[in-house]
Amino acid sequence: MTSTDDVEANLLKVERFVAQASDEERASLVVLPECFAYLGPEQGKFALAEALPEGGPILARMARLARAHGVELVLGGFWERASDPKKVLNSCVHLGADGAVRAIYRKIHLFDVDLPDGTRLEESATVEPGRSLVVTETPFGVLGLSVCYDLRFPELYRGLVDLGATALAVPAAFTLTTGKDHWHVLLRARAIESQSYVLAAAQTGLHFGTRRSYGHALVCDPWGTVLAEHGEGEGVASAWVDPAVVTSIRGSLPSLRHRVLGRG
Predict the structure, then answer these.
(1) In a domain, 176, yes or no
(2) Is residue 193 annotated as a catalytic residue, yes or no?
(3) Looking at 45, 92, 107, 220, which residue is catalytic?
(4) Residue 258: inside a domain
C-alpha cells in the first residue's frame, strides 16, 4: 500500500485488497503493512489512536472486514493509545476470521535515524516501546509477530521460534534508502536462520513530504526462497504456507537444535 494522511482512502484500499486476496487468491490470512490506516505527519496519529483490545472505529471496521470475507487479518501497524498521552503504541494486531482480537504485539525496537536524503525519523519521540514477544495461532500454525525495524534484530525472531513460531509476520514501512539495499537480504536471512516462513507486507511509494517506502511485499519460505513478491506499486502478493516444509527443513538441517548460545 501507499498509505497517506487520508484515513478513509487508506481503509477503502485495505477493503479492496483484502477482498482480492480472499476472493481471488483464496487467502485464509492477510497481513497489512505498518501504518496501514495512516501514514502522514507525526501528530496526526494521536487523534486516531484507539485503546486495545476494545478498539474504536478503525478496529471495528477491520473486524467487520474479517467477518465479511471469513479471513484472518494481521493489522501490521495499528496506532494504539498509550498510557502516556504524548505517545502512542505501534501495535501489530491479529484478528480472527470472526473479527475477534487474537493477539497484540507492541513494537519493541523504535526507528530513530537521520537518512542521507535528509529525512529524519525519530519514532521514539512519539511512540512508546513494547516489551514482550508475541506468537499467535493461525490456520497454518504458530505465527510470530513483529513490526518493521524489528527485522534488524535476529534475536527477536529466534525468541519467537523458541515460543513455537513456524512463520513470522514482518509488516513494514521500510524506507526507500535502506530498503533497496537491505530489505531482501534481511528477510531471507531471518527466514533461513529461523527456518520459518516470512510474511512481509510493505508500504510503497511517496506518502508525504520526502517520506518514501521501498515496497516489495513478499512471502519467503524457510529455505530463503522468495515465493511471491509484488515489487513496487500497490497490490497483493500471495503464497501457500505449508507446515510440512518447515518440518522437513528443520529435520534435514537441524541448526536450531545445534544452537549453543542464546537459548532461553
Answers:
(1) yes
(2) no
(3) 107
(4) no
